[in-house]
């Protein structure tokens, strides 16, 4: 039997390779933009932060899309479904490796931003000076750390939620299709597409609302206090929802979802 | 002694169509079995059900007495189409995947096989011809020290000389106790290799005979026996 750590490693490697390829192109984009800026503005006026963060956002999004696609493909590929390991282990290894790969891309982006700041960090320093209150005491710093942690947890929860939700739609369609003739399959897929669009819009508007709440706390409140138990409760409910949907996906994988060939 | 493969009352439907019905089959360890049937008869589906990648079947499938899917997969080496790998992946990377994923993968056997099949594993998957890709799939599948090998049309696209060479040597790549199930259209070429034949017709196993039985009871070769069943020259009550 294949252990979780071996399943993790075999699923991690292709994702790590894809992310490295993507980061290579990210670096090329940053370097080309930097050379263009030097040519246009001169070395003295070079400003790297916006370039690094701009390209970081673009490539971060592409990384997320690529990982979402790989996530789906691996779970319906013979190559992975033939592994002598349980469906729960396989599903979790897939989810965790995707998350680790995305974190890896995030860490590289942070390193690039730090390098950019060290080189020419005028813009980011100005942004901090105008937007963030630095008159903080020890309690504020603790709250700021708490904010940081909450943001990280939220980011992880949102990413996981999107992945398990996409899995749910994919597996749900796959499961229903197996019991229907071709014509009815098209109707069911059409209805599911409408439901999916509605849920996606609702989710995105909720995220946007949440994001503006967090941003307001961070930029307008001088005494940074995390008076937002609602945010923690929402986070907890989201993690519960992730666990429930993941369990449902694993159940469908065990019972109905076949590998493609 | 536990059968290598034991299938009881297996039924499988997909998209409201019956693919397999009331399949019962017992195969003893150590045999090389030909799984024959026309296109769409359900040979691939049966193999995929045994390997645990097709779902929602009714009935029981046991490999070496193990009916649970994950432990059953540990016993089975199935010739998969390598669809989970990227075209840019090198064959050596795919080998590494197999070595890590399957505890029974034998690096020595792999090396012997790719040497025998004249495959350079420094190549990328996308550069392989159809025949070389099939040879590589055979090499990977047989590199495992599995109890049951499932080879689904393994010789497609392989030139006739290589095909004959592989068929004549295939016995050396499996352990004595291992069972090998081969589904193929080149019946005459694999016939000499087969200990037993399983024929699928009308969604079920309509015949399961040893090669000796076919010769002694019907006075026919394997290919002629198979064709006689499909053409109706041999009736169900004679089997």
Automatic annotation (TrEMBL), chain A:
Segments crossing the lipid bilayer: 21-39, 51-69, 90-115, 144-166, 187-209, 229-251
Record's signal peptide: none
Keyword annotations from UniProtKB, A to Z: Membrane, Transmembrane, Transmembrane helix
Name of the protein this chain belongs to: ABC transporter permease
Organism this protein belongs to: Levilactobacillus zymae
Automatic annotation (TrEMBL), chain B:
Matching CDD domains: ABC_DR_subfamily_A
PROSITE patterns from the UniProt entry: ABC_TRANSPORTER_2
GO molecular function: ATP binding
A Pfam family hit: ABC_tran
Keyword annotations: ATP-binding, Nucleotide-binding
Residues of the ABC transporter domain: 5-227
Matches recorded under PANTHER family: ABC TRANSPORTER, ATP-BINDING PROTEIN, SKFA PEPTIDE EXPORT ATP-BINDING PROTEIN SKFE
Protein name per the record: ABC transporter ATP-binding protein
Organism annotation: Levilactobacillus zymae
């Amino acid at each position: 039997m294949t252990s979780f750590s071996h399943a993790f490693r075999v699923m991690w490697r292709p994702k790590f390779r894809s992310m490295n390829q993507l980061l290579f192109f990210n670096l090329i984009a940053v370097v080309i933009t930097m050379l263009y800026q030097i040519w246009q503005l001169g070395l003295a006026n070079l400003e790297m932060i916006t370039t690094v963060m701009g390209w970081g956002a673009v490539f971060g999004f592409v990384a997320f899309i690529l990982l979402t696609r790989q996530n789906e493909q691996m779970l319906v590929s013979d190559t992975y479904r033939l592994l002598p390991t349980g469906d729960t282990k396989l599903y979790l290894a897939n989810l965790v490796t995707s998350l680790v790969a995305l974190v890896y891309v995030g860490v590289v982006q942070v390193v690039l931003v730090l390098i950019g700041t060290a080189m020419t960090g005028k813009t980011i320093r100005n942004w901090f000076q105008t937007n963030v209150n630095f008159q903080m005491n020890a309690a504020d710093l603790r709250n700021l750390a708490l904010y940081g942690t909450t943001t990280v947890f939220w980011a992880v929860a949102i990413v996981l939620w999107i992945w398990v939700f996409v899995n749910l739609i994919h597996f749900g369609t796959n499961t229903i299709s197996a019991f229907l003739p071709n014509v009815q399959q098209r109707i069911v897929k059409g209805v599911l597409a409408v439901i999916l669009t509605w849920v996606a819009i609702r989710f995105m508007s909720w995220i946007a609302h949440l994001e503006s709440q967090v941003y307001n706390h961070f930029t307008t409140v001088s005494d940074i206090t995390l008076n937002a138990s609602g945010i923690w409760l929402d986070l907890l409910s989201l993690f519960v929802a992730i666990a429930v949907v993941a369990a449902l996906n694993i159940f469908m994988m065990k019972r109905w979802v076949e590998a493609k060939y | 002694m536990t059968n290598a493969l034991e299938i009881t009352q297996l039924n499988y439907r997909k998209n409201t169509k019956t693919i397999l019905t009331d399949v019962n089959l017992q195969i003893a360890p150590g045999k090389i079995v030909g799984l024959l049937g026309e296109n769409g008869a359900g040979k691939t589906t049966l193999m995929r059900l045994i390997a645990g990648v097709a779902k929602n079947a009714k009935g029981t499938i046991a490999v070496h007495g193990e009916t649970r899917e994950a432990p059953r997969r540990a016993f089975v080496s199935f010739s998969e189409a390598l669809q989970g790998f990227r075209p840019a992946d090198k064959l050596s990377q795919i080998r590494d995947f197999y070595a890590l994923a399957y505890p029974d993968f034998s690096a020595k056997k792999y090396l012997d096989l790719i040497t025998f099949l004249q495959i350079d594993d420094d190549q990328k998957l996308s550069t392989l011809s159809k025949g070389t890709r099939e040879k590589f799939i055979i090499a990977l599948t047989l590199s495992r020290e599995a109890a049951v090998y499932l080879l689904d049309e393994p010789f497609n696209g392989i030139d006739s000389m290589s095909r004959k060479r592989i068929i004549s040597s295939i016995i050396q790549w499996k352990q004595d106790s291992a069972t090998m199930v081969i589904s193929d259209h080149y019946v005459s070429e694999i016939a000499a290799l087969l200990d037993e034949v399983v024929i699928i017709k009308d969604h079920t196993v309509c015949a399961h005979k040893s090669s000796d039985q076919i010769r002694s009871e019907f006075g026919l070769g394997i290919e002629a026996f198979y064709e006689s069943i499909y053409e109706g020259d041999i009736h169900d009550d004679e089997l």
